[in-house]
């Protein structure tokens, strides 16, 4: 199915299926002998989402290597490690307000150590946030910070919905946009997202995100190629055409033009920091290595 401007999804189809896939990879990364992340909620969330392949991978009945995707748990594990470290750093700088845009099955509001007084806002499709909140409540999980779930499409008026939940634009904010700016938003929507984040950010605010350089279509192609490999192994996942064909700006350059001070790291940098090697990963511009990881501060 082609992407459209007002398409929606659950956690078994389209963009939602990628959120379940990423949580599955975090579950697998978390149960390694020397795990680089600890996400105890990933496996039960994946099982509840109801995608058979991901449920079997998350609980260890299958391994990613069995379906030709050995790289996946390391890749998404090291990405999670990078973004996990962002919030404690922001907290140490005195930031007590965090917004996770496109939160998917992210459980950082529950599994990270938040400072006293911290408040976390999670934004995603209404079906996605309702599913996660209900599932975690059934598990008896309690947020480690004051949590507000904001069910709204990022292509719509999410700032109003965010303010209605109590967001204070006069306070510095730690923003996380994980997995959004790698083709899942149209080019104009990506620009608008960064414009709106900037408008809502006072000096001292921080942002962490991953993004593709302008013109790269590596992620959309990579996910569809992965789905084809899985199909040959007998597993069908309803990804559809995930990315928009529109050209988009380089997110880091766009942030700099908006006045942010930015720092970028590569996949190789993330792997080195975690003392890991690039097993079965393409660290070049046409594979996993195409994605850049940016942190930014609003001066």
Automatic annotation (TrEMBL):
Q: Indicate whether Lipid biosynthesis appears among the record's keywords.
A: no
Descriptive protein name: S-adenosyl-L-methionine-dependent methyltransferase
Q: What Pfam families does its record include?
A: LCM
Q: Which InterPro entries match?
A: Ppm1/Ppm2/Tcmp (IPR007213), SAM-dependent_MTases_sf (IPR029063), SAM_mthyl_Trfase_ML2640-like (IPR011610)
Task of the protein = Exhibits S-adenosyl-L-methionine-dependent methyltransferase activity.
Family indicated by similarity: Belongs to the UPF0677 family.
> In the Enzyme Commission scheme, what number(s) does this protein have?
2.1.1.-
Please list every transmembrane segment annotated in the UniProt record, as residue ranges: none
Q: Which PANTHER family match?
A: S-ADENOSYL-L-METHIONINE-DEPENDENT METHYLTRANSFERASE YKTD-RELATED, S-ADENOSYL-L-METHIONINE-DEPENDENT METHYLTRANSFERASES SUPERFAMILY PROTEIN
Q: What is one GO biological process annotated to this record?
A: methylation
Coiled-coil annotation: which residues? none
Alphabetical UniProt keywords? Methyltransferase, S-adenosyl-L-methionine, Transferase
MF-aspect GO terms: methyltransferase activity
Reply yes or no: does the keyword Transferase apply.
yes
| UniProt organism field | Mycobacterium riyadhense
